[in-house]
Description:
Elements: H1 4-16, H2 19-26, H3 30-44, E1 49-52, E2 55-58, H4 60-87, E3 93-98, H5 100-103, H6 106-117, E4 122-127, H7 130-138, E5 144-149, E6 162-176, E7 186-187, E8 196-199, H8 205-216, E9 222-226, H9 230-238, E10 244-247, E11 258-263, E12 269-276, H10 283-302
Parallel strand pairs: 3-4, 3-5, 7-11, 8-9
Antiparallel strand pairs: 1-2, 5-12, 6-10, 6-11, 6-12
Amino acid sequence: MLNVQRLRVLREVVARGSFSAAADALDYTQSAVSQAVATLEAEVGATLIERDRRGLRPTAAGAALVEHTDGILARLEAAEEDLAAIIGLRKGRLRMASFPTAGATLMPLAIATFRDRHGDIELSLAEGEPEEIEPRLRAGELDLALLFDFPGVRGSWTSGLGITHLFDDPMRVALPAAHRLAKEQTLKLEDLREEAWVQTSASSPCAQHVVRSCHAAGFEPLVSFESDDYQTVQGLVAAGVGVALVPELALSSVRDDIVIRALFPESPMRRVLAATAPSPRGAPAAAAMVAILAEMARSYADDPARLTA
Length: 309
């Protein structure tokens, strides 16, 4: 493979018409310039410079190589400029995905803040559940994703990814406004052992965590209805067909005909995470977005209404 620096030396020699002038321009010794040209000739197997009484000029092979060198160096300079722009967040793109409840609350504010600070970066956002997003992140289709997992649950999909824990998202009890327990400010999960339940689809991580939590409280939940839309879950609760555990992030809008209560001594929890791809593609922009998401998370911890204002 041809050495770029030796190609640069050849171009200077041809452009300036002498080894000494090229040495001055490159801040080399004349012997270093001569050696670089000789090594390049050995690499290509052809004479590149001819000398006669009129001075120095390129051979046909030398002229062709210099012409290509101009293009090579121009491309390298453009590449260096692009890299500097990307590293400096003046160019590039950031491909993101989020699970729905964070995509409707945390991510919009983070995107708006990112655009204010780094308006030249192209942003895109897809939506999906963590089990759908995580493979795309590992495959390089995404640069950053908002995921969630549950403390103490083995087999987390976060292994091998760059993970930043943003905050904990507690699950609250949703009850019909006329429910016998609606006037209680805090409840124990075992208080609901005789209730019918509404939850997300049985295969979803949140539904599985609800079942685990009920098992830990000593009972098997009787699931009457399933929906992956938390507004539908609220509607079913309001209709009096069951109670539900709903993540706090999904409660940015709460119906007037249901009540939301905390669980005592603690509510089931999920961890909200910012995950970045194992490969470095998009790394500067992804790192900047993670920092902004962390800012949003701190604001949310101080004031949950901040995300829905």
